[in-house]
Task: structure prediction
Amino acid sequence: MKNFTTVHDIGPLDLAVKEALEVKANRFAFTDLGRNKTLLMIFFNSSLRTRLSTQKAAMNLGMNIMVLDVNQGAWKLETERGVIMDGDKAEHLLEAIPVMGSYCDIIGVRSFAGLKDKAEDYEERVINQFIKYSGRPVFSMEAATRHPLQSFADLITIEEYKTKQRPKVVMTWAPHPKALPQAVPNSFAEWMNATDYDFVITHPHGYELAPEFVGKAKVEYDQRKALEGADFVYAKNWSAYADPNYGKVLSTDRGWMVDAEKMALTDNAFFMHCLPVRRNMIVSDDVIESERSIVIPEAANREISAQVVIKRLLESL
Ligand code: CP
Result:
């Protein structure tokens, strides 16, 4: 694997999950693989899980790790070519990227969508510049349109908890006070569509995701109908994708929150969320604290998805 930014980079999912379960059973089996190799993790945005789980995964593989928070202690970076740099940005990404590449063997990048310019976000300008100019394998720690390490961890978790060969997985929009990117739902849809699960997306009108991510998923605007018989409920907020409302909050209707009454419509479903989650906006306290909530093992599997990805990148060096 040369880079990891989408489901298409990981190859057959059954083999990826098999490798993940092997890594999970013996996570220190490859400590020699990363000896004298350095991972540079670059964050343009905040993180708890991605930062810690990816660092732990690289440590399990014997790597050295450097972490750069671009907005704390580094020069402010210009990302647009052709800009007259007379403002507060002291360095251009086009110099910064090869410099960063010269200090490491593998680069992880977190760079969210700005939600101002859909074309710019969906071109994945920042992470693609790292791939083009760093000279190193690059993996996404959540980019503008996808969060593949999260989706891979979600898939591992579903495979661990499913009791049916073909579970019904429902991704439901839920309210949030701020405009959030579409990266997590896009990516989750992309990974679920690569399985043979019965995959349903439910959201209010106006929150349609990009058709290339919706793919073969069933879209059901009636949340209660969508949840009937579900084996897994995956809650997430996202802002509007469709023009002219790209990046906007169209609804904060708390009638879409996942609560016990909604979960009662399911087939005793497991509750999932990538975290961080706003309680009593996205999900009620009782649901997230219930025995069917698997948000903590789901987050724990972030270490495993990251370890498989970094292992494969190290094997390709
Ligand atoms: N799920 C996730 O990516 O969490 P962080 O934003 O805390 O890394």
About this structure: The mean pLDDT is 97.
